[in-house]
Specification:
This protein is mainly α and 268 residues long. The protein has helices spanning 10-36, 39-60, 71-100, 103-108, 116-142, 151-178, 182-186, 189-194, 210-217, 220-232, 240-267. InterPro entries: ABC2_TM, ABC2_TM_bact-type, ABC_2_transport, Nod_factor_ABC_transporter.
């Protein structure tokens, strides 16, 4: 007797793929509606970084020596990262809320791709943080920010910020799935938000004490900030762009692995 193995045809594979993307778009729309209904999310993620930018530029900026004529140009990359770090805490919160309300189990009982719920939260983080970054950029332009960067440099900046957001979002997924309380789900973001203050985001690292300078120069925020700053100013990018990308990709891969393990454990 001849045994034949049935291989899914291209039409079946295409149908599965279409279902995955349609399910994911539904999850994305669901999470985005939660954001637009929550004004505290918009205020925290967008208004607070803008207030910080105003404070540093108009209050502290005159006393900070950066070697540049326009302090808002120097400051802006760090403000972007602070806004993103603040925004991802809401990803953990929303995911934790879904876990506590049994939404995961409810979705698991439906004929949808299992990973679309996680990807819905991840894509929501990318979209919402992109909106925050655009709003901050518009305010920075009103404050005097100017850039001589070309289109390729701008696209590189967008790519780095998206990769940074994606990496931190998968970090946020882990406590969102495993935390025992709301505070536990969001507390991880505090040290991440604090990292730009011990970097080159606000002042050059050469002005720092030795121990602080060593830490500042060897943590991911400094490499990312310096790279974005060089790109926006139209200057040649040093080797730090590869350091920045290595940090982002490394964090992304490790966080994704642990997040999927946590998800598998949660639904098993």
């Amino acid at each position: 007797m001849e045994v034949t193995t049935q291989v899914p045809g291209s039409q079946e594979m295409e149908t599965r793929q279409n279902h995955f993307f349609s399910d994911m778009s539904v999850m994305l729309g669901r999470s985005m509606r939660h954001i637009f209904r929550s004004m505290d999310t918009i205020i925290t993620v967008t208004i607070m970084p803008i207030a910080m930018m105003l404070l540093f530029v108009y209050v502290f900026g005159g006393a900070i020596q950066t070697g540049t004529g326009n302090y808002v140009n120097y400051l802006l990359p760090g403000i972007f990262l602070i806004a993103i770090a603040s925004g991802i805490s809401y990803t953990a919160y929303r995911l934790f809320t879904d876990v506590q309300r049994g939404i995961i189990e409810r979705f698991r009982s439906m004929p949808i791709a299992p990973s679309t719920m996680l990807w819905g939260h991840v894509l929501t983080s990318l979209v919402s943080n992109a909106i925050s970054v655009v709003v901050i950029m518009l305010v920075a332009l009103l404050m005097g920010f100017r850039s001589s960067a070309g289109i390729l440099s701008w696209l590189t900046v967008v790519g780095i910020l998206a990769l940074f957001t994606l990496a931190l979002t998968w970090v946020a997924v882990i406590p969102g799935l495993t935390a025992k309380s709301t505070d536990g789900a969001t507390a991880f973001s505090y040290p991440i938000t604090f990292l730009p203050f011990i970097s080159s985001a606000f002042v050059p690292t050469k002005s720092m004490p030795l121990v602080v300078r060593v830490f500042a120069e060897n943590q991911p925020v400094t490499a990312i900030v310096n790279t974005i700053r060089a790109l926006l100013s139209g200057q040649p990018v040093s080797h730090e762009i590869w350091v920045a990308l290595a940090w982002c990709v490394g964090i992304l891969v490790v966080a994704y692995i642990f997040a999927m393990r946590a998800y598998t454990k949660r639904v098993s």
